[in-house]
Design goal:
mainly alpha, 66% helix
Length: 94
């Protein structure tokens, strides 16, 4: 019997769930790391005015140090700063 059109197959549903769980777990790691930093230094990431260049340098440094969670946090900060400055979401990352 054929499945109705647009009905996701079991593997597609599983992939979507794996994607969702993976993103959720990574985001949780990001949040935990940011909270620990905020507690340790009694400051939040948005308390400092970062330039795009500073954030890009921190992203690069974190990647060289094999710290993808911190790199992702700096990417989030860069994305946030660009959106606050009026960049469209599609322009962020360019």
């Amino acid at each position: 019997m054929n499945q109705p059109i647009n009905q996701p197959t079991i593997p597609e549903v599983v992939r979507a769930q794996v994607n969702a769980y993976s993103v959720h777990d990574f985001a949780r790691e990001m949040l935990c790391k940011m909270n620990k930093h905020q507690e340790r230094f009694d400051t939040a990431w948005y308390d400092k005015s970062w330039t795009d260049q500073e954030l890009k340098m921190e992203i690069h440094r974190c990647l060289l140090e094999n710290d993808p969670v911190s790199a992702a946090n700096y990417c989030m900060m860069l994305n946030h700063a660009r959106q606050q400055n009026g960049a469209s979401p599609s322009a962020v990352g360019q």
